[in-house]
Amino acid sequence: PPAPATTPCPQRCRRSGTLQSNFCSSDFVLTGTVKSVSRGPPQEPGWAVVSVLSLHKSGGLEVPQLAKGATLRLQLPCRLCPALKKGSSYVLMGRLGADGGALLPPEAFVVPYRPQQQQVLGNLSKRPCRGTR
């Protein structure tokens, strides 16, 4: 049977672009460690709970005091991608959902976090994005 319309999944999960090319087009950019991933029934979105290491761009994301270690729930409309492993740390670039919550669509730019990316992200967050105020 075809997948339900609520969980659009591509044929193959793949990301495109780089940290630089995705930074401005994403609503929020953060680094975090995955605490849990829940993939509910097929017609329901999944969720990832992430412990935030650092927030580089909030884009209107309502995050309760983003102290180190704050947790954030990210909705996963597609159950397969982006692929997140519990206990692993990632750079997560996502969108704001209609309800203002954090959303990681299947095409979201998500890469395993490496310490050397911190400087790149810091530099990107200082530069204004074209086309935004």
From TrEMBL:
Its main location: secreted. It is found in: Secreted. Residues 9-129 form the NTR domain. Coiled coil: none annotated. Pfam families: NTR (PF01759). Keywords: Disulfide bond, Secreted. The keyword Secreted applies. This is PCOC1 endopeptidase.
